[in-house]
Write a structure and sequence with these properties.
The protein is mainly alpha-helical. It has four helices and no strands. 0% of the residues are buried.
Length: 71
Amino acid sequence: MGGKQLGLSDYEQTTAKKQTKREKFLAEMEVVVPWDSLIALIEPHYPKTSKKSGRPPYPLTTTPRIHLLQQ
């Protein structure tokens, strides 16, 4: 019964899973795409939240990522 107790980092290493295609693509997209300049171009034309009824728009940083994933 003298076993060593696993720490959090030990647990993460023993349960590490293989990276999926989607996760690889998203990591590569974060490096390649100039998000700050792209969002600056879109922001003036992006709908703002309003007091009227209706569904609020997605966050501006999420929309271009969704679009690129679809393409």
